[in-house]
Structure formats: C-alpha cells, structure tokens
Amino acid sequence: MNIVILDGETVILNDYNYDNLNQFGSVTYYKNTSTDLIIERAKVADILVINKIQITAEVIDNCPNLRLIATLSTGYNVVDIDHAKRKNISVCNIPAYSSMSVAQHTIALLLEATNNVGIHSKSVHAGEWIDRDNFCYTLTPQIELNGKTIGLIGYGSIGKIVATICTALGMKVLANTRSMTPDPLVEICEFNDVLSRSEIISLHCPLNSENTHIINSDSIRLMNDNVIIINTSRGGLIDEESVYSALSSGKILAYCADVLEVEPQSKSCNLTTQNNAIITPHIAWASSEARGRLLDILEQNIHGFLSGNIINKVN
Q1: Which residues are marked as active site?
Q2: What is the 3-state secondary structure (H, E, C) of 167-228?
Q3: What is the per-residue pLDDT across 233-268, written as a single tens digit (0 to 9) for each?
Q4: Of 160, 206, 238, 246, whose CB has the highest number of CB atoms within 10 Å?
C-alpha cells in the first residue's frame, strides 16, 4: 500500500510526524508540492493525503491505483469529489478537530479589536509609559462587550462554541443558519436581520458557490456604523475591495481575519495597509492540540477505509 503525502508540513510543524501511518504501508512524505509536480508524485499512490493541494479530474485520471484521498482538513473543496466518486475513489475529511481552537482564535481577534492589547503592550515596551503625567493612558477606545450584539453567519460546531463564550461575556447572540432550527442559546434570524441588528458579525460557514462574497458593498450597507467583522472561515466569503473601502470610510470599525481570498497573501491584497485590519496567517486551526487530534483522526480514517468500516466519507 503506497501512501503519498503531498503537502504535510503545515500539520506536523516541529512537534509531530507521520510515523503512525507506517503500519499501513510505504509512506512517501513531501513538505509541499508545486502544481507541476502533483501528477508525477501522486501517480504511484494507493492512498493520497493532501491539505491544500488541488486534486483535479486530471490528477485523478493519472493515478491508476488510487483508492482513497484523505484530506488533512475539514474542508474538501480542493478535491473534485464528483469525479472521484465516478472513479470509485473515496474521499475522507477530518471534521471538528479544530472547533475549540478556531472559536478561541475568533474571540482572540474580537478582544484585540476591542482592547488592542498588542498596541498598548508595544507602547509600554517602547518606554511610552515612563514619565507620563497620569497613571494610565489609552491609545485606542476601550470597548466593553457586555450588552453588545454579535451576529453569527453559520451555526455549526465552531459557531456554537463562539456563542457559548459570547453569552458568558454578557453578549446577545443572533445566528443565521441554513436549517433555521431554533436554539435556546441564540436567536435564529434571517441573514439581513443579522446584518442590520449586530454590532459584531462573525463568519462561521463553509464557502460554496452560493455564498462567495456574501460580505460585499450591498451587505455592508445594511450593517451598523462602526461594525466589527470577524472571519475565521474562508477568505472567499469576503469581497476584499468592499471591506477595504468600508475600513477606509470608517463604516467598519475593524476587520479581523485569519483567512484571505488568496493564500499565501497576494501582493495585490491591500487590507494590510489599513491599521484597523487585524490579519493572522490562517493559524486558528493550528494549535498543537488540534493538530494532534487531526493526525489521530487521519489514522482512524485510513484504518477504517482499509478495514471496510469507512468513516468521514464525503462523497
């Protein structure tokens, strides 16, 4: 059994490895794989393990022995799952491994927007507290979250954890979800109602053809002035030019994101030129604990497939 890992570096970093897969066969590991090398490296695989590598119909057609594509992620939009199904190739993802970590990062971004801890700490380290006339000073407004309304777009496992934390902070939580199923923790609302009633909006939905650029100039106009927008989901949910314009005009108080539409960041992305944009490099999922769970579930996915008890199959 040939197991080929095409882009495994971001998962293991410096504290994990893929040794647990040796029990299943011969493992070939690549830190990353450029587009021109995907077919060459993948064609010998019985099991292909990928994170962000695009597995197109062409790649699948050039892998005659391929039986399983195992993603190192919850999302699987990088795989042509319909073509894989036609070829009788299973695709398995890794659900919910990072829900706690992503929810925690969401709140970290929110607190940075409201309290600007980093800016004030940097100021103190620069000596700006020395010889001040008063015992304290602020460089930005300090915002209390108690009593504020946060609107969640998407209400899956991550959104529910975020709702629990926000409720503990004294916030009112609105949520828009496809099912519109009532929930005792939040008020389920239509999308436009969430936009117009919330002081903070946080995105927790998967990206698909129906919600690409769901945050755009039209939806921003429905929002309250000085709104805070948080995106720890997918960059493509946001029309970045519209957000840039609203940051410039002051309509958006802060845009806090762990994702961009193009990753790694494109040189043409201008969001980082705005002081009120807080951007982290897609790290919300990457706690040591979450990556450990991911590798455990990857092992379970492969074991389940080989033993005839497949789990987490998405096609």
Answers
A1: 234, 263, 282
A2: HHCCCEEEEECCCCCCCCCCEECCHHHHHHHCCEEEECCCCCCCCCCCECHHHHHCCCCCEE
A3: 999 999 999 999 999 999 999 999 999 999 999 999
A4: 238
